[in-house]
Recover the amino acids of this structure.
């Protein structure tokens, strides 16, 4: 009975169930992707009348020769490398510590989750004050160890580090919740067996906890990479609609935004989006390849 093939009526019923979601995905995901890919080849294009006057590879040639786009790609890669590892490590560390706390555990989980549900505009306003050169809290604490005030938001050297710190802090809450779920699902008998074998706390963490939560670590890592490549809101809010002092915090998405909305260069903006798509695809494929050896399902 279980191997019986479904009838065409049953197949039709199943397709009808998923049809609304397929329609939404097709309209709001697939169509924009295909349109952007096509638009990236429009070298002369009237956006308002949708009139295509010429096509070619000039938009990609423009990106190849544009120093600002090179800077945007470099900043995006620095941001991804600076955010993703620290985001995963700090989230896992805090989740492990929270998992050991029984008293006020719910309170601490709520505190750490608040940044995730708070508006990025409100968060940026607070961090603008924290980063203030003269009255900011960060410079106040740095002064105790003899470090002179840093102009985080106006010095091109410190704009990107300031953005990285903000991004890591903002994403901690959601990742901690995911790690806590994974930690609570680890079979406690594995820890008991490890103790019987004489494993200390560090060895139990390395040889039991880390392998057992590897699927969740992989999920968080992939989400962190994709989210970091698409960073925009934090930049726009923290630097008042600019890409940092002297474009020092320019990323690919901000470059795309500037080309599309400020300079009306739609084809170049679409080409930048295509480049970003392949950057994310390349890194994600590497993550999936690595996961085959280190993720235990």
């Amino acid at each position: 009975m279980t191997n019986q093939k479904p009838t065409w009526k049953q197949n039709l019923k199943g397709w009808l169930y998923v049809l609304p979601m397929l329609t939404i995905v097709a309209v709001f995901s697939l169509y924009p992707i295909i349109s952007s890919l096509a638009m990236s080849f429009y070298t002369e294009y009237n956006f308002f009348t949708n009139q295509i006057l010429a096509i070619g590879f000039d938009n990609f040639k423009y990106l190849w020769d544009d120093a600002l786009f090179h800077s945007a790609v470099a900043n995006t890669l620095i941001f991804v490398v600076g955010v993703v590892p620290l985001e995963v490590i700090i989230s896992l560390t805090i989740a492990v510590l929270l998992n050991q706390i029984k008293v006020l555990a719910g309170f601490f989980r709520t505190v750490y989750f608040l940044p995730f549900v708070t508006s990025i505009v409100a968060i940026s306003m607070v961090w603008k004050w924290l980063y203030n050169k003269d009255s900011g809290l960060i410079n106040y604490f740095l002064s105790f160890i003899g470090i002179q005030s840093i102009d985080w938001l106006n010095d091109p050297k410190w704009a990107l580090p300031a953005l990285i710190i903000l991004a890591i802090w903002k994403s901690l809450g959601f990742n901690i919740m995911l790690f806590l779920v994974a930690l609570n699902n680890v079979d406690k008998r594995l820890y008991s067996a490890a103790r019987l074998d004489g494993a200390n706390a560090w060895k139990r963490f390395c040889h039991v906890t880390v392998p057992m939560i590897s699927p969740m670590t992989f999920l968080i890592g992939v989400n962190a990479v994709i989210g970091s490549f698409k960073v925009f809101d934090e930049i726009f809010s923290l630097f008042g609609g600019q890409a940092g002092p002297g474009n020092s915090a320019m990323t690919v998405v901000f470059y795309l935004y500037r080309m599309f909305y400020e300079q009306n260069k739609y084809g170049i903006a679409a080409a930048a989006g295509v480049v970003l798509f392949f950057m994310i695809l390349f890194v994600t494929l590497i993550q999936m390849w690595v996961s085959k050896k280190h993720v235990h399902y």
In short: The chain has a mean pLDDT of 90. The radius of gyration is 24 Å.
